[in-house]
Design brief:
The protein contains 19 helices and 33 strands. With about 700 residues, it is an alpha+beta fold. The chain folds into five domains: about 70 residues, Phenylalanyl-tRNA Synthetase, Chain B, domain 1, CATH 3.30.56.10; about 190 residues, Phenylalanyl-trna Synthetase, Chain B, domain 3 (Phenylalanyl-tRNA Synthetase, Chain B, domain 3, 3-Layer(bba) Sandwich), CATH 3.50.40; about 70 residues, Phenylalanyl-tRNA Synthetase, Chain B, domain 1 (2-Layer Sandwich), CATH 3.30.56; about 220 residues, BirA Bifunctional Protein, domain 2 (2-Layer Sandwich); about 90 residues, Ferrodoxin-fold anticodon-binding domain (Alpha-Beta Plaits, 2-Layer Sandwich).
Length: about 700
């Protein structure tokens, strides 16, 4: 925002300061100089004004700042006095007091519209405004001088000599000064005459009541409009003006008389005419607020470097009323300082002028106890590390989703949002998976066909709710492997910590490898990695969750506690999201992991001697689960056998009941290299015992 040095000098004496010295002082008190321009014998400073400092967006406001900074007094503009109001004054009525707290009008009759004086025109041009005529130029000049926008109407073009401040009506329009036809709604502050809108209050005047060369009688307006209403209308119309910029930031509601009489005096001096007494309509009075500034708080904030006497003198130079009380100051804040609300604002004002660089740097004294993180936070961070190490990317989704998405993965009653903005966010999520699938759809719409994503978050349930489908915390496996459906009581809401992983498209283990489609063991392996990191021993069992595909689903258990559900999504779920192709998912219960984690564990040394891989191929019926085979092998306690895993598995068409499974085994000793004969002997014994225990056929 531009300020003329000569203009400022009319309010505060700056004759002893060079342009550089003035620029430095302005910057020190928070008004950074962005540029300077030379206009003849005048210097124009382009300053960066803090957005909430509307009082500093005028020459008199900036003069107050400089006066306080330089220890001087600023000259205030006294209100001019005019004659009595005519026998037929215009009617002023405020019908929307919530939008307009005060409306001041003043009529000037028998004026001459002509070009402005050279001084007024030059000052307007220096700060970037184009001179128009002596009436319009004065309204702009006074706004730049005193900070309060004004507007001038051709009184003879105002129907019924009546001004009404009201809400707009749906369907109304007004042609603004820029020639555009503006639509009005009920949130618009309208200045209307007896028949129609003639201006958009606080934003722009109307074309049909503008000042022209034929104008003889002028009605000046100086009002206070609600900042929120002005901001909404300006944003809706895409129209920003010098007036709206100031009204949005809350101009002084109590300076309208001083501002309008200053403008009237300038108009009479330039164009003749007779100015009548102002008509001041006050819908609601705004009084200055008083704030107590405690000496103790000022010393604490300034490290003891600022005394209460300095603050008292500063506030008086700024135009505040301040008096000493027993514990500090009682400061009455003028209504033009709408940025000051509380004691800390007063302290900031003092330190701004004192200079933050003059306040000693002191570290605060802080006493802290033991800081302990929640177990869930620690576990979630550890799981994040595992997933990132597996090449999975983290996403964050909303906690509220479409109600029908919850029904895809859970049969619980979801928690509805009472004030939902749309149907898309009408229920709290029972699972992280719907939001993840929506992310998959979004990514694919931008051409990302392959991906590995995870989310760490919370799900929201009614206390006591449990569901086999969602696998929520508290779901346990009884001895008969049957689940119990619990009723859903209408009680308080509880949160569960969960992790969801989604793999879709194709993956490649190394950059040089050809990509292959995601398979079940990719997602299963991720769950195993997490369990290993968290020191949880898990086993996998068949799952009957309907949202996972039959034959491609499993549940991970630790004892009788369910840790996770893994598998490929069912066709129904994929179809609901419009996803084509397989999607592998894992739904992991963080709280179950914490409860199952082995707090005491030891590190085993790395074997110095090589191990030997062996395979075991066999066939068996469909009713024999893979996990049962692995559990049987581990129960044999075979010497030197360290690992058992799946190498290959062939599941034929449903008409054939025989499944071919190939197991990989790792034999290793810590004190020596094993011989082939030793390994063959142990491996043969293992195969023999397995064939005797389970209905399998060795190949």
């Amino acid at each position: 925002m531009k300020f003329s040095r000569q203009w400022l000098n009319g309010y505060v004496d700056l004759s002893d300061l060079s342009d550089d010295q003035l620029g430095v002082r302005l910057t020190e008190i928070g008004h950074a100089v962005e540029a300077t321009e030379q206009h003849g014998d005048d210097t124009v400073f382009d300053l960066e004004i803090t957005t909430n400092r509307v009082d500093a967006m005028s020459h008199i406001g900036m003069a107050r700042e400089l006066a306080a900074a330089l220890g001087r007094s600023a000259k205030e503009t006294p209100a001019a006095a005019f004659g009595a109001t005519s026998s037929a004054p215009p009617t002023i009525r405020i019908e929307a007091p919530e939008m307009c707290a005060r409306y001041t009008a003043l009529v000037i009759r028998n004026i001459s519209v002509k070009p402005s004086s050279p001084q007024v025109a030059r000052r307007l041009e220096e700060v970037g405004l184009r001179p128009i005529n002596n009436i319009v130029d004065v309204t702009n000049y006074v706004m730049l001088a005193l900070g309060h926008p004004l507007h001038a109407f051709d009184l003879d073009r105002v129907s019924g000599q009546t001004i009404i401040v009201r809400r707009g009506k749906t369907g109304e329009t007004v042609k603004s000064l820029d020639g555009e036809m503006r639509k009005i709604d009920t949130d618009t502050v309208v200045i209307a005459d007896a028949q129609r809108p003639v201006a958009l209050g606080g934003i722009i005047g109307g074309f049909e009541s503008e000042i022209t060369s034929a104008t003889k009688n002028v009605l000046l307006e100086c009002a206070w409009f609600d900042p929120s209403a002005i901001r909404r209308t300006a944003r809706r119309l895409g129209l920003k003006t010098d007036a709206s910029y100031r009204f949005e930031r809350r101009v002084d509601p109590n300076d309208t008389l001083a501002v309008i009489t200053e403008a009237a005096q300038m108009i009479v001096e330039s164009g003749g005419g007779i100015a009548e007494s102002p008509i001041d309509v006050v819908a609601s009075e705004v009084k200055p607020k008083s704030i107590r500034l405690r000496t103790e708080k000022l010393h604490e904030a300034s490290a003891g470097s600022v005394g209460i006497g300095y603050a008292l003198d500063l506030f008086r130079r700024l135009g505040f009323q301040a008096e000493q009380v027993h514990d500090g100051l009682l400061v009455t804040v003028p209504t033009y300082r709408g940025d000051i609300f509380e004691e800390m604002d007063l302290i900031e004002e003092v330190l701004r002028f004192f200079g933050l660089n003059n306040v000693p740097a002191m570290l605060p004294r802080v006493t802290t106890g033991d800081v302990r993180r929640e177990a869930a936070d620690v576990a979630e961070d550890a799981i994040r590390d595992v997933l990132v190490g597996c090449g999975v990317s983290e996403v964050i989704n909303y906690s509220f989703i479409r109600p029908e998405w919850n029904a895809l993965v859970s049969d619980e009653q979801p928690i509805a949002i009472s004030n939902a903005l749309s149907e898309a966010i009408a229920a709290m999520r029972l699972s992280l998976l719907p939001g993840m699938l929506d992310t998959v759809v979004f990514n694919r719409s931008y051409g990302t066909r392959d991906g590995a994503l995870f989310e760490v978050g919370r799900t929201y349930h009614r206390e006591g709710a449990g569901s086999r489908e969602s696998g929520v915390v508290g779901t346990t496996r009884s001895k008969s492997n049957s689940d119990t459906r619990h009723p859903i009581p209408d009680t308080r809401v509880i949160e569960h910590h969960r992790v969801a992983v989604v793999l879709y498209g194709s993956i490649g283990t190394f950059w040089g490898d050809a990509k292959r489609p995601v398979d079940f063991f990719d997602i299963k392996g991720i769950v195993e990695q997490i369990a290993a990191k968290m020191h949880v021993d898990i086993t996998f069992a068949a799952s009957d969750q309907s949202w996972l595909r039959s034959g491609k689903r499993a549940s991970a258990w630790h004892g009788d506690k369910q840790i996770a559900s893994v598998g490929f999504l069912s066709a129904e779920v994929l179809q609901s999201f419009g996803i084509k192709g397989d999607v592998a998912v894992a739904d992991i219960d963080v709280e179950a992991i914490i409860a199952s984690s082995n707090a005491e564990w030891t590190m085993a040394p790395v074997a110095r001697f090589p191990g030997v891989p062996m395979i075991l191929a066999l066939t068996h019926g469909r009713d024999l689960a893979y996990q049962r085979i692995v559990d049987a092998i581990r129960s044999f306690d075979v010497p030197y056998l360290h690992e058992v895993g799946l190498r290959d598995r062939f599941v034929p068409a449903e008409s054939d009941d025989i499944i071919k499974t190939t197991l990989g085994m790792w034999y290793q000793a810590f004190d020596r290299s094993l011989t082939q004969d030793e390994i063959a002997s142990h491996h043969h014994q293992l195969a023999t015992r397995l064939a005797a225990m389970l209905p399998v056929k060795l190949l």
